[in-house]
Design goal:
By secondary structure, this protein is of the alpha/beta class. The protein has helices spanning about 40-50, 75-90, 100-110, 125-135, 160-175, 195-205, 225-230, 240-250, 260-275; strands spanning about 5, 10-15, 20-25, 55-60, 95-100, 115-120, 135-140, 185, 215-220, 255-260. The radius of gyration is 17 Å and the shape is globular.
């Protein structure tokens, strides 16, 4: 298993679970849409997340919530590149680009990103080639369908086996494209084309994904499954998010993607202390 991740020259320690702060520079993301559209607001939020303990900042310029409108490549570039550049210049943190578009990957890495986080697992035309050429580390995620329709009627005979098989196949495609094995991470895609039951089964069996010998990234922050289980609106899902974070940490997740960095760091620290007691 990888213990240190090379993100375009910046090393990320994976001997313990780390936090990736979510920075959506979009008007329509499900939780924080519209809050960080301006570069100054985005940079202020990045500073806060770093101060709270985030070692990665994941910049996204296109919402992947169900029903969200698609954006053009140029619009996504206009949203993310100034933010990536500013974070890279101002903060000692790894910048991740949350995109499926090869051109956005390329320009974001040129602007200072060292990590590519792709919900489509590098399946867009030329994405594998471009990701390899950038030299960045990559995270490939499982998603059933497309963001706009993924929650309409997701079905699996065995969700854990299906997701593991998909990720194993994508790992092989990455390796064949030339991406080094020690720069590949996996994400089971909590909430992406899955029902509440599917999500719970994935969390219950999360430790199985370590069998693929790649670090596991998980994003559960404020998601609708938490709302369903608790009856809470999106702005009141911190407690549920923290509970899931601790479970994911105990099950071997190496990166937790989070809106609420300070609380997530606390949850990881407690879970890690218990595991090492």
């Amino acid at each position: 298993m990888i213990t240190s991740l090379d993100c375009a020259g910046k090393a990320l320690d994976l001997t313990r679970t780390q936090v990736m702060g979510i920075l959506n520079v979009t008007p329509d993301s499900f939780s924080d849409g519209g809050l960080f559209i301006s570069v100054p607001d985005a940079i202020k939020q990045a500073h806060q997340m770093v101060n709270e303990g985030a070692l990665l900042i994941d910049v996204g310029g296109e919402s992947t919530r169900p029903g969200a409108a698609a954006v053009s490549t140029q619009e996504e570039l206009d949203r993310v590149i100034p933010v990536v550049e500013a974070i890279h210049n101002e903060l000692d943190v790894i910048v991740s680009i949350d995109t499926s578009k090869p051109e956005v990957m390329k320009q974001a890495v040129n602007a200072g990103a060292g990590f590519i986080n792709d919900v489509r697992a590098l399946r867009e035309p030329d994405a594998l080639q471009i990701a390899n050429e950038t030299g960045a580390s990559v995270c490939i995620m499982h998603m059933s369908g497309e963001p706009r329709s993924m929650q309409e009627n997701p079905q699996y005979d065995d969700v854990v086996t299906t997701v593991k098989d998909f990720l194993l196949e994508r790992i092989q495609y990455c390796i064949e494209a030339g991406i080094p094995e020690d720069k590949i991470l996996i994400d089971p895609g909590f909430g992406f084309g899955k029902t509440v039951d599917h999500n719970l089964i994935l969390i219950k069996n999360l430790a199985e994904f370590s069998e693929l010998d790649k670090p596991v990234l998980v994003g559960v922050s404020r998601k609708s499954t938490i709302g369903t289980l608790t009856g809470r609106p999106v702005e009141q899902r911190l407690n549920g998010t923290v509970a899931l974070t601790a479970l994911c940490c105990q099950s071997g997740a190496k990166i937790i993607r989070a809106h609420d960095v300070a609380a997530t760091v606390d949850a990881i620290n407690i879970a890690t202390a218990v595991m090492h007691a």
